[in-house]
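Form 7-S
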Amino acid sequence: MKNIFKGAVFAVSLVVAGSAIADESTAHFKGLAAPDLQTAVANFSEYNKRLEDVLSGELTDMDLVKVHELTYTLENALEKINVDLEELANTLEKVHVASETFNRDALKEAAPAYLNTARIIVK
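Output:
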């Protein structure tokens, strides 16, 4: 009975040690934050360039780790971009409706807000 217990403890120890090693080999990175659209677009542009550079040659294990690390910043940037683009689409709809209904006041309010955000994406 003692041997069965020792064997079970040993097996559990191996599983715990193995998962700890696996966690170290695929470390999780935080990535750069994207607190605003301008930062998100800048990070998205820069980290896509970095990704392209890594992918331009033979991929080593270190390159795969680098790609893994880059994706965290890219994911943060895309999340912010997606949120802000949804808001931008809503603002554009206000511009559209205001122009369609000849509502000059609503157009003067919505159009500058739309353009300010749109200029961050398209320069």
